[in-house]
Amino acid sequence: MKRSAPPPGRSISPPPVKRKVQSITTNKAVASFFKPASQKEPEKLTWRNVEKTLIVGRYDASNVPPHTRTLPVKVAAFDLDDTLIVPNTGNKWARTATSWRWLDQSIPGRLRSLYSEGYLVVILSNQGNISLKDNPKSLQKDTASLTNLKAQVTAIFRQLDLPISIYAATGQDRYRKPRTGMWEEVLENYDLQAAGAVDLSNSFYVGDAAGRAKTDKRRKDHSTSDRDLAANIGIKFYTPEEYFLNATAESYEHVFEPAKYLERQQFSELSSASLEKTTVSAPFTKNSPQELVIFCGSPGAGKSTFYWDVLQPLGYERVNQDILKTRDKCIRKAREFLGAGLSVAIDNTNADVETRSYWVRLAREFNVPIRCVHFTAPTRLAEHNDAVRALNPNTMNPEKRTILPGIAFASFVKRHQPPTLAEGFQDIYQVDFEFKGTEEQRQLWSRYWVSKFST
């Protein structure tokens, strides 16, 4: 439950500290970095790790009289790479204290101006090339990558010399943009979790991952994670060119918008001409005393939910390869159920004719009808569903599924052959994805969760 906002004018506790001081040159910052420890002044940048996936660095300028901000607070958030800085070497990214330069020379002054205007200035960056987890095979590499990132950020912050924090997501979890975990950590760290504590209308995020197409002067953006993060938070978004270089804003349309999917409730990209019309009328009913039902659909298309909501109450036993691990074990378990006179549901992807033929032969072996349930959710929707499920374990993931790699979805698309009655099915029942859940779950589902789709 959200806390109510404190009265207007109340300062933040603990308040972020402000200082007004001339900038330190890059050469001086680098020279300080390489000084022996005995000659250095106390370190102003402190680091901590959160849940072994999030790195937080906070620069302390406490020797200057603090600037007291009042609620609601305006937040100026930035990506790091290709937004504030770019590499000054041929390698991308060879991180050292000297391997970078500002994307534009106006940036230090712009950030200081924001701070003097009362903005809380933070950096939110995905750093997937770093791992904080204990992995003996890559320990030396991970340690070096983390050390290099800290060296670079130290040099950057010393040149800025203003109270600023960086949040770097290293895993594929709730902290990684466009998910809002880093933003939520900022709110907690600065005591801004109360409703209304942040001035969302005047806050903004600047980043280069905006989903833009390639031009003569720019390569294609690698994802939409920055644009989508701003949308998830509910704040304005700018590209670095728009914010720092006064470039004209480019029009953009998302290739997948969860909220619009909910509005339309039309979730199939497949042409109706490519599908055999089902001979089963809704709702799904059990036609025979004993049946074998197999699913065909992408991971994340809603297969397991359909089993628990529809088939389990009708008395079907479930066979699932995620649990049993191999097809042979699935066949043995299905044969055991059929031998006991039970109806069985095969909750696997069953993408192609060859895979489905194993189950057709098994049905014939036991002389029971075989039916197919075809789930039509397109790949982008399925990947979105998978991420929502995996990253919301307490509200939308009763089976504690972990997030799947993009190759799992790409592989299904490559192998997928729509089922036909000619394969031996009694009928084919089509299921188009339809969201069902509480209002809280709907709000979670409506966010952007995947920044780069596999197809």
Name some characteristics of this structure.
seven-stranded mixed β-sheet; 31% helix; 455 residues; Rossmann fold; double-stranded DNA binding; HAD_sf; 14 helices; alpha/beta; HAD-SF_hydro_IIIA
Could you describe the 3D structure shown?
The protein has 14 helices and 14 strands. The chain is α/β, with parallel strands linked by helices and 455 residues long. It has two domains: 26-253, Rossmann fold; 272-445, Rossmann fold (3-Layer(aba) Sandwich). A seven-stranded mixed β-sheet has the order 1-2-7-6-3-8-9, sandwiched between helices. The protein is elongated, with a radius of gyration of 27 Å. The model is unreliable at 11-25 and 266-281 (pLDDT under 50).
Give me the secondary-structure topology.
Layout: H1 26-33, E1 45-50, E2 54-59, E3 75-78, E4 85-87, E5 100-102, H2 107-116, E6 120-126, H3 139-160, E7 165-169, H4 181-189, E8 204-206, H5 225-233, E9 236-238, H6 240-245, H7 258-264, E10 292-296, H8 303-311, E11 317-319, H9 321-324, H10 327-339, E12 344-346, H11 353-366, E13 370-375, H12 379-390, H13 406-415, E14 428-431, H14 439-445
Parallel strand pairs: 3-6, 3-8, 6-7, 8-9, 10-12, 10-13, 11-12, 13-14
Antiparallel strand pairs: 1-2, 2-7, 4-5
Helix pairs in contact: 1-3, 10-11
